[in-house]
Amino acid sequence: MLSVPLIVHAQRQQGKLSIYTDQHKGRILASGDKYTNVKNWAAHEHLPVNSVIILKNLDNGSSIELSVKDRGPFKIGHIVQVRSDVAQQIGVKEGDLVELELVKVSFEPPDIDFRDFVNSFDKVYSPNNEIIQQKTSDQSNDKLSWQLASFSNKENAKNFINEHQPNFRLELFIVNPSTSLYKVCVGRFQNRKEANKARSKFKDQYESAFIYRSPLSR
Questions:
Q1: pLDDT confidence bin for 129, thresholds 50/70/90
Q2: What is the CA radius of gyration of the chain?
Q3: Domains of the chain as residue ranges with CATH
């Protein structure tokens, strides 16, 4: 399979930090490694897997070298996600402002068995596919939504909706696909063409939004 290298434009990036919860233990990462078998790694939404970054605590100047092993975090304003033991090494907590510096880009595709990757999610999470808040109009045939943010706490997801709903004509809603995971989404579209047309109206403010296929709309 042909591997297309990702062109990285920024050498440094600042934003908020996310920390993995214990429910991720047992998962297989996007790199093919097991969650608990690798030390000093991070998740990034775009950087190639196995690239090397330096993560810096902007408050105290502490830093640590990490390998990109997973994808995430999928929260607006959050640029990197690490395990709690990594966060402790530089004295940061969930939501703290950090800076990452790209040290080395890797273009080698990860060695991963995707069957094991998918099965690791099935073993860790307990999906209940509960839609907590949903637009009441007839959208039963729609399949695609834009995910704007995700939270481990339902109240934080509701607060996000209250703050950002004025920016949208469509109603924001929450999807709870697994324990302690609350996704804030907007729209239910028949296809990507409709979804992309809708996103053109908010893409500048919500650049990290991505397509999410709700389990209830398959």
A1: very low
A2: 18
A3: 12-123 (2.40.40.10), 130-217 (3.30.70.1070)
